[in-house]
Design brief:
The structure holds two protein chains of two kinds. Helix content of chain A is 15%, strand content 24%. Chain A has helices at residues 9-27, 114-125, 127-130, 143-146, 279-283; strands at residues 53-57, 76-79, 82-85, 151-155, 160-164, 170-174, 189-195, 198-204, 224-233, 236-244, 253-261. In chain A, the strands form two sheets. A nine-stranded mixed beta barrel of chain A has the order 1-4-5-6-7-8-9-10-11. In chain A, a hairpin with a 2-residue loop joins β7 (189-195) and β8. Chain B is built from four helices and 13 strands. Chain B has helices at 2-17, 71-87, 152-160, 341-366; strands spanning 49-52, 68-69, 129-130, 133-135, 139-141, 218-223, 227-232, 237-243, 258-264, 267-273, 289-298, 301-309, 318-325. Mean pLDDT of chain B is 86; it is low at 1-35. Classes of the chains: A alpha+beta, B alpha+beta. Chains A and B meet through β4 and α5 of A and α1, β6, β7, β8 and α4 of B.
Chain lengths: 294, 367
Amino acid sequence: MMFGKDGDLMGIITQKAMRIAVAGSLLSAAIIPLAGQAYRAPRAENGKPDLNGIWQAMNEANYDLEGHNARPAMALRPGPYGPVPAASVLALGAVGAVPPSLGVVEGGEIPYKPEALAQKKKNQENWVTSDPEIKCYLPGVPRATYIPQPFRIFQSNSQLFFAYQYAGAVRNIYLKDPGPAPVDAWMGQSFGHWEGETLVIDVTGFNDQSWFDRAGNFHSDALHVVERYTRTGPDVISYEATIEDPKVFTRPWKISMPLYRRQEKNAQILDFKCVEFVEELMYGKWRKTPLTGQ
Amino acid sequence: MRHLLRMGMPIMAALLLWEPGPAAAQSQKAPAKTDKTRRMADGHPDLQGTYDIATLTPVDRPIGAPAVYTREEAQKREAAAAKQRAKGDEAIQGDRTAPPKGGDGSVGAAGNVGGYNTGWLDMGSAFTVVDGQIRSSIIVDPPDGRAPPMLPAALQRLAGARARPTSDAQENTNDPGLEKAPGAYDDPERRPLGERCLLGFGSTSGPPALPDYFYNNLHQIVQTKDAVMILTEMVHDARIVRMNAQHLPPTIRQWMGDSVGHWEGDTLVVDTTNFTNKTRFRGSTENLHVVERFSRLDDQMLLYRFTVEDPATWAKPWTGEMAWPATDGKIYEYACHEGNYALTDILKGARLREKEMAASKASSEKR
């Protein structure tokens, strides 16, 4: 550290602290929360923290929940000097590469059982034919949250509903206990309640079809997700999901990330009915005259 | 069985758990009007809830039917429908004789060989009642209760179109084989939007949101200050109505259009434009314009009224209305595309048939 010639360390610290304190009070505590003082979100019509709005994660979780270096592609094959993009994705070049991330998994690694870890690796190797996102299938939870498209929360006096842009996925969040889910579903059955400033959603009733990301991380139909949504500022929700699946993991594990409010004045959820976009992939070969060439 | 295959076993299990409850909109008992309308904090009526819009009242009035049925006439028709439903849901005896070739002559979704047992279906059990009148059609204007004929130019346009699926197309459960329309099985794009899992069939998502006279007729409304969300059960389509907002730029087109809303007194008015040129409600163009009006009749019932216009398709706008009765029923996930084995099989079947026909032609030429 460098100090002025006549600098007195304590004096400088005191001065800075004073300036910060004055600035803080001038800017109003509502905008810049003081350290140690929890942000109190505006209330919605039901008296609870207002989660209404269009939100989106801004991270690489959908590529791979775990920390990872950048990779040439989501599907790889051995090259003479290391992995190169697989033929199925080669044409995408840098657009098809995987950006790096420190990961969103608490503790770094997903605690797979040994046989499940082998399945995860197999999933990753067969990504291009196996990832449900490629076929525009419903994303499941928590993947819907961090798939890189916005979602909208509708929170009224009596109802809570999430509408995701990706594949037009939806979740009604029951606020009264609906009982055990009568059927399995891609998006599960959501039952929400409030713990102080936090919306806690207990999600059960999943099928075993969805994945967590493009790296082959997966679950079984024993999946149980507990999500926690806490507003930590005017435009930020702190999101946590605890993932439990005794068939696949040795213990429950947790991911966390901020969700950001889309700031554009005209931000909204638009059509992303990708079902239409995958028809050529899924049904093209059954055309009367299949397309040929590039 | 197309949809059963597509929905997969979980939904079939749900249907087995389902027990029909008393129909919310029995024409026998007109709903009691209440003075107090549930209201939101901002003073507007609270339109929220889950609604089951299955009804015996068709969109277009049957030729020769009166605009309004007497109570006796409605009861007779509802009883006949109940009887047909019960018959279509009888247990199948393993040692029964084969049904006659081509079906037993009964019509409707469950009528023909290979159709559904009525237990799978939710085709409505009562006529819709508006203003105390038991209605024979949803369309109220033109006064004959039928959508106006399409303009000659529209018919010409549609005749020339290669892909003709429309958002109101019904499932064809009595398809005797390949449709007569040339090329109907050539490409996925030629198949009905419902079969492709792009939208529910029968304009269930709308707008205008119509009963599909088959199943999955539920809608959920969630209402906030800035937006009203209307969920259509089939195919989990959430239409977001932005309140007091401008329409999207004309370059942005959506399957269900772009909906903006405002309040006129206690009525929510929803204005929808910006449709895709693939939506084609009853053969309309992408310039279809739909105005819907939602209001509360009582604690258990909404009034849904709509007007559609498209000067390139109809000479003048036309209007329909019906009651939306609330239901305690839950909406389960309609994961259509995820289980759509049908579309592969339909196209693959057509290719196989072509191959077989070519082979039989070749062998008969040889002879």
